[in-house]
Here is the input.
Amino acid sequence: MKSLAKCIACFIAVIPIALQLISCSGEKAPGKEAPGTSSEPSMGTGEPRKSIDEPKKAVAAKVNGVAISRFDLLGEMNAIAPQYIQPGRKKDPATDEKIRKEALDRLIYRELAVQAAKKEGMKAPAGAVAEELKRIRAEMKTEEAFRQNLVKSGITEEELKGRIERNVLVDMITEKEIFGKVTVDLDEARKIHEQRRKSYKGPGRPMTFEEARPLIETELKTAAVQKREDEWVGELKKAARIEIAP
Here is the structure.
């Protein structure tokens, strides 16, 4: 499992949607236009609006009864795809399945984390949500570009705010349950320095412990965060009812 501590730092609002678009179970990925259609949502019962609404309603999985939509799964797959598929390289079923599994794992984790945060009584501060929305708008340069990206991503501004709130909650609960419970043993750091003294090179000489300490502590903390993360996610999954749609 990839470090979710790294994943939580990645804001996946699907704006703009990743260039690599992957179909799942024969469905068209959100944002991908069929020949002759417009990416603009239809005001009536046209196909463009329907093509977005259908995967939003379709269920990819349920976590304690809360549905994860196929639309969100496709969006997460789009975000992950560039890690596995290089430009010009053809995708294959095995790679698609690997991407799908990782995307679903991430979505299940985030739903579990959000539920855990709510259980703790946590609420996303309105200021933090507004600041993130402001940052996204600034990245889009103009209000028109912001609106166009919402349309291409198949989400409304309210849905975007909801995603931001969820990400803030994930940050809050992981700070408490993962980062807040990780410590670095100074004696262990000294022991590592003694064992690898020659590998910590300073200007013309090996580093002293104090010079190498930040590097060693970062290494120990990274390992400790991964260990605590795995433990916590395991605890959440063990207590959860997770249903994967066929």
